[in-house]
Amino acid sequence: MRNFYFNLFTLLFLVVLSLTVSFFKPVNLGLDLKGGISMLLEPDMDYALSQEYERYAKDIEEKVRTAGVNVLDIVVQKDGIKVETLDQKDAQKVFQIIQKDFPRFVVVSTNKGEPLIRLKEEEINKLKESIVGQTVEVLRKRIDELGVVQPVITKVGQDRVLVELPGVLDIEKAKSIIGRTALLELKLVVDSGSKEELEKKLTKDTELLPSKNPNEWFLVEKLPVITGADLKTAYTSTDEFGAPAVTFELTDRGAKLFGDATEKNIGKRLAIVLDKKVMSAPVIRSRISDRGQITGQFTPEEAKELAIVLRAGALPTAVKFLQETVVGPSLGRDAIQQSIKGGIVAFVLLVILLLARYKIAGITANLSIILNALLLWAGLVLIGATLTLPGIAGILLNMGIAVDSNVLIFERVKEELRAGSTFRKAVELGYRRSLSVVWDTHITLLIAALILFQFGSGPVKGFATTLTIGSIASFISNVYFAKFFLDLLVKLKLLKI
What we know:
With 497 residues, the chain is an alpha+beta fold. It has three domains: 2-35 and 328-491, Up-down Bundle (Multidrug efflux transporter AcrB transmembrane fold); 46-123, Alpha-Beta Plaits; 180-323, Gyrase A, domain 2 (2-Layer Sandwich). It has helices at residues 2-24, 31-34, 45-66, 88-101, 121-146, 171-178, 195-199, 252-264, 300-312, 329-358, 360-382, 389-418, 423-455, 459-491; strands at residues 28-29, 36-43, 71-77, 80-85, 105-109, 115-119, 152-156, 160-166, 184-193, 206-210, 217-221, 226-227, 231-238, 244-250, 270-274, 277-280, 291-294, 319-327, 386-387. Strands 9, 10, 11, 12, 15 and 16 form a six-stranded antiparallel beta sheet that branches. The longest helix is centred in the last third of the chain and has 33 residues, at 423-455. It is elongated and about 105 Å long.
């Protein structure tokens, strides 16, 4: 009797808890049920590789010249860093320096016999993996700032990223935030004017950048004073004329670098460069340390979006949109309605089948299936999982698996009754002798679901999530509490099977 009351209390507690959770907290709906946007992105690896060569070119040049090697020039190309030497001996010295001080690189020869420095193949693969990982993290931060509920941002294959935004239907706005590189750089201005005039003054240590004014270009130093990596935060504000602007604050390291640079260059202009375009170029009047402001005739919405992407950080490279899909909410409503109809039909057929086959015992199986569905739904809500159309298919499949467990147990109980056992003994022996098979079934299913969840993406994960929770709920309801229901019928002398 003590076990009976404990089981009864546990059952009532789980039912009340599940109903409360399901009533007060709605389940998150996925893209295929709620509507939204799906995009497949690919980071621009060629650009990222050329940027990596740009970063190392200056260090390599300093090492080579310090070692006394006679070089004519060091040029960054798409496929590596070319070192123009006077003779073969100097080329050999370059090879030795790279081998000793830059182990990530390898030296090959051009058609003219000049050293061409490239990243090793394994280093290129590491760079690609790092870029995809950084892209996923930056996109996740940006989308979290937008407040999208349960987005999907995941790696697909070796170098692609899938982004799903349930409830978001403005694809242009989403692309402007997701695909924006948001590379912020503060660079000292050498000169400004027309493009034709400035091209004559261009050197390898400077670069020519456009501004928001099509008639004005800026010649700036290539090496930035600080970059977006030195930002602590960014937020919308207004400039001295009351127009929308973005104010940024710097980290301790960034504030020191910025303070030292502005102190040494009072009277010069400082270009605020965003995605290789000069937004503004104010004159440095005094030492500036921990903050600055970006102006540029923004609308309030543009200022807000810029603050979001700056807070989330710059993408490691530009991204290309390979595929864009907009799913309307009406499709999701139709899918839900069809799924509900299918679920009701399936449940009614199960009820009829179980009652016809197992009489009164079939009632306990139906109660177990209802309890299983309730526990599964509450589990989805509690862990904050997203319900997708494949997830609904997983729920319906779980109903079939739940019935399978009851069929195994009931058939074993009937065998014990045919062997002459009493109802109480038949129930005990039937459960004991079929439990190992039921355990194996549920554990195998759980392992398969976890593997799908680990290695799958998008819809596959939705299916695996409901299957995982459903396997646990099925064992609790269709094994543990189904026996409790049968024991209750035995006590009341109502069991027929």
